[in-house]
Each structure stands twice: as C-alpha cells, then as structure tokens.
Amino acid sequence: MWAALRSALWRCGRAAAPRPRAYHGDSVAALGTQPDSGSAVYQENYEQMKALVKQLHERAQKIRRGSSEKARQLHISRGKLLARERVDGLLDPGSPFLELSQFAGYQLYGNEEVPAGGIITGIGRVSGVECMIFANDATIKGGVYYPVTVKKHLRAQEIALQNRLPCIYLVDSGGGNITRQAEAFADRDHFGRIFYHQAIMSSQNIAQVKAATGEDVSAEDLGGADLHCRKSGVSDYYALDDNHALHLTRKIVRSLNYQKKLDVTIEPSEDPLFPADELYGIVGANLKRNFDVREVIARIVDGSRFNEFKALYGDTLVTGFARIFGYPIGIIGNNGVLFSESAKKATHFIQLCCQKKIPLLFLQNITGFMVGRDYEAEGIAKDGAKMVTAVACANVPKITVIIGGSYGAGNYGMCGRAYSPRFLYMWPNARVSVMGGEQAATVLATVAKDQRAREGKEFSSADEAALKEPIIKRFEEEGNPYYSSARLWDDGIIDPADTRLVLGLSLSAALNAPIQKTDFGIFRM
Predict the structure, then answer these.
(1) Range list of H helices, 233-339
(2) What ranges in 25-107 are assigned the alpha helix state H?
(3) What is the CATH number of domain 16-61+265-430+493-514?
(4) How far, in Å, CA of 475 to CA of 470, rounded?
C-alpha cells in the first residue's frame, strides 16, 4: 500500500549534496546533518529497522490478500468485485488512498483470522473530494461485523466527524456476528453507535453515501434493488452491477457542491534535503539508544527547514515551526525526559499554535515526566499539568507519530490516544505501555522481596529471575505495535520512510474542517 501511495501522491527527491544548517532567503535554518553511514551504530540501526520494515510489508501484504483463495473465487464467481477492487474503482485515477487501521483484529481471535478487521477504511479522493471510504469484505465470514469490525467502523466515522469528510459506504455485509453479540450489540460504542454517528453527521451537513454492492438478504422480494427502487423508495439509484454502482457513487459525490476552505496558508512543497530511509540508521530498533529528534524532523519537513522555538530552554523537548507539503505545522518532539522547563515550553508553544491556527505534530519517544523529591519541590506536577491541559484543550488538528517509546504519563503529555489526536500512527520499532518491561519487573520484584522479608523468608536471585521473566515477556508482547494496532489504539503502523507522505495526506484531510477557537482550562501557576 505505501509503495503505491508513494508513487501516486508525491515523490520524495533526494538532494545530491545536503547543506546542513544552511540559511535560505526567509532566514529559516535547514536542519539536519549527514550521518556517518559507515559507522557500526548506524549500520546496526539500519539493518534492525530494515528488518522490522520488511516484516511490516510482508504482514500488510498478507492482510491485503484478505480471506482464503476459495472464498475469494466464490465471491468473484457471483459477478462481484473484491472489496479492494471496489475501493480502487471508486477513487480518482492515480489518486492516493490513506488506509487506516490495517492491522485491526490482527491475531485478536486466536486461530480465527479477520484480515483488516473485516472492513477496509481509509481516506481517498472521489470526484476531487476527500472522502472517508468504508468497504465490507464479504469474503470474510460473509462480511459480518466482529466486535473489532464495529470498533474500526466507529473510529473511521469519528475521523470523518472530526475532519468533516463525506462518507461512502460500500456495503456488502451479513450484519452482526451473532456468536459475539454480547461484545458488539448493547453498549454505547457497539453496533448501534454506527447509525447514531450517521444521524449526527447528517445533522452537521456531512454527506453520507451508501452503495449496496451486495443484497442485504438473498431473496429479491425481501430486500433487493427492484423492491427498494420501484416500490419502497428506500434506494435512490438502480445499479446494474458493481462497476455501475461505483460510477453512480462518483456522480453523487460530484453533485455534492462541496468546496474545501482552508484556514491556513499554503506554500509550494519542497523535498527534504536528506533521503527518508536514513531514518532507519538514525533511529533503529534499540529504544535504549539515544538519537536527536531534529534529525527525524529534517527528513520529514519541506526543505528540511525548521524554525526552532526556545532552542536553548527546556532542551529535552524540541519545538518549532515547519511545513509539510506546503502545509504549516508546529512540531513537538522528545529529546529526553520531560522536565518542568520542557513542559512549560510545550505549553507556551501549543498556545502560540492555537492562536495562529497552526496544526500540531507530536513525535513521541518518551519515558515520562521526571520524578523525585527535588523535582516535585520545583513544581513538576503543576508544570506537567499545564502541558497536559494545553494538549487536551488545543482545538487545532493534532497528529501523533510514536517513533520510539511511549511510556507512562509521557504518553498523555505527548498527545496519546486518550487526548484525541486526529490521527495517531506508530513506527514498527515503537513500544507503548505504562512503563518498560524491565522496569515493571524490577518494581514487582522489589515488592515481592520486601514481602518475603517481612515474612522472614528468603528471596533468592533465582526467585527474582523466575518472577521477572514472565513479566518482561508480557510487557514486550502487550507493548508491541501489532498488539496496539490490532485493538485500534492507533490508526496504523507505518514505514518510517513513508512518514512524510502519510502526514501530508493526514494534514490535507484534517484541513477539510474549519479550525475552531481554543478555550484553555485554568493553568496551575
């Protein structure tokens, strides 16, 4: 998918001779340095990340194939297009498709595979309009809704609501999965919420388009096209086949009279000065190995130019202004643990971006906020609260990419899932948990050791190792990006080299909605 996206959207050129820290006519510094690609650390990082990316593409390719070949051929024999063929046929020729939540349901139901959660969702251009597209995959258990299918459908609707994207539903579903109805029927965010969202979006003038590419029931007189076009009036158009239905849908979108109105200025796009795949060697898979987030920024933003804000203050957090494919962006990136100074710096920067209506990008690689008696006395709690308040209240589009670790309250301060970023993506090396596995194991081992001491019992090194091993293993499993993506804690795992492209599409989609004024809560002083 991402290779196709790269060729269909924008092409990232590679400057033959990068100019580190060069200054242009607008006096904004070009960020980044040429890495020592021959160093052992760079090569080890590169190979480790390359292996993770290879695994990502292999797993994504298997998911795109969908169900078994037998189920696919049965579907085709009925004269029907496969779900991904329907999406391709709907999109404007040559335009990109930003697929979301591709790993939904991955290894979630044991041996029962549900590729892509049984439904394809994503953003693409139809008749020149950016739309949220939903396509049921009827080759997977007849397109029935598993609990994860419902969750994925609702997440896509939430994105459409936030960004005011018209919705196109390519429906080919047997309805709810009755064997799992307790997990998908009665609660607030279960199946009924889909129709609730449709009503709310309609009330907000967000268009809903439904193309029933398969019959709701098998008998024509109970629910087919003839009945609903000629007698009930439920359907507005009669399609002869899948391709005709897609043609009619494109005509409907063309007649929406929709025009995108931007609240930001746009400048010509420029390629970064550095190749995107250098990110592999700069970051790598070893989260204990430090890197400068500025080197990541230099390979994402236009011309590698970055107007850094408060560069000498709170230097464990990097903040500044840039552009991505011509769109303005305020960037907040981690370069270490969050101290009081870095939290206050972030709060100040977020306020500026909200006042100027500039979208925010959070690049997460964070172990958390600094703790300790001295830091508590200096006010880390209230300064951290300032940052969290600013992140929560900011009404500009917020996009988060987890490029390393995302632990503890640092996840919150850097706009994790709970803080409703418009989009949240993960790199394949990323980890998300309340703390690292070794740290958690050490904490629990200390508790166990103290308890044994109170009981007058010995706690040997062998006992400690036996206690720690399963804890570390569990944290590694649950912190893995595929575990996260399977449960829709993010919107997709992406190749680091595709980050700029994905951000460009996401920003473009987010700017369909007007940027509202931000009203902040009370900051602790």
Answers:
(1) 242-254, 278-283, 293-298
(2) 40-65, 69-77, 83-90
(3) 3.90.226.10
(4) 9
What is the rounded distance in angstroms from the CA atom of residue 102 to the CA atom of residue 30? 35
Q: Which long-range contacts (CB under 8 A, 24 or more apart) does 20-27 make?
A: 24/303, 24/305, 26/305
pLDDT in tens, 16-32: 333 444 444 456 778 99
Question: How many other CB atoms sit within 10 Å of the CB of residue 497?
Answer: 19
Q: For strand 119-126 and strand 97-100, is the pairing parallel, antiparallel, or unpaired?
A: antiparallel
Neighbours of 266 (CB within 10 A): 12
* Model confidence band, residue 6 (pLDDT cutoffs 50, 70, 90): very low
Q: Is the pLDDT of residue 3 over 90?
A: no
Q: How many CB atoms lie within 10 A of CB 469?
A: 11
pLDDT at 136 over 90: yes
Q: What is the mean pLDDT of residues 223-235?
A: 66
* Residues ≥6 apart with Cβ < 8 Å to 74: 139
Q: Provide the β-strand partners of residue 30.
A: 305
CA distance 316 to 333: 9
Of 1-10, 72-81, 111-120, 183-192, the least confident: 1-10
What residues pair up with 100 in beta bridges, in sequence order? 121
DSSP 335-346: SS-B-HHHHHHH
Determine the pLDDT at residue 19: 40
Intervals of CATH 3.90.226.10 along the chain: 16-61+265-430+493-514, 66-254
With a cut of 60, say whether residue 202 has pLDDT above it: yes
Q: Contact 363/346 with Cβ under 8 angstroms?
A: no
Cα Rg, the chain, nearest whole Å: 25
Q: Which two tokens stand for residue 260?
A: 């995108």
Q: Cα dihedral sign for 282, 43, 278, 399?
A: negative
Q: Token pair of 209, please?
A: 């388009």
* C-beta separation of 427 from 399 below 8 A: no
Say yes or no to pLDDT of 15 above 50. Answer: no
Q: Would you say 406 and 479 are in contact if contact means Cβ atoms under 8 Å apart? A: no
At the fourth CATH level, the homologous superfamily of domain 66-254 is: 2-enoyl-CoA Hydratase; Chain A, domain 1 (3.90.226.10)
Alpha-carbon gap, residue 398 to 414, rounded angstroms: 10
The residues, ordered by sequence, that sit 6+ positions from 374 with a Cβ below 8 Å of its Cβ are none
Task: Please state, in angstroms and rounded to a whole number, the distance separating the CA atoms of residues 360 and 399.
Answer: 6
pLDDT for the residue numbered 163: 97
Give the bridge partners for 133, in sequence order.
122, 168
Tokens matching residue 124: 């693409």
Cα separation of 432 and 403, whole Å? 11
pLDDT at 235: 75
DSSP string, 317-331: EEEEEEEETTEEEEE
Tell me how crowded residue 447 is: count the other CB atoms within 10 A of its CB. 11
Q: Is residue 174 pLDDT above 50, yes or no?
A: yes
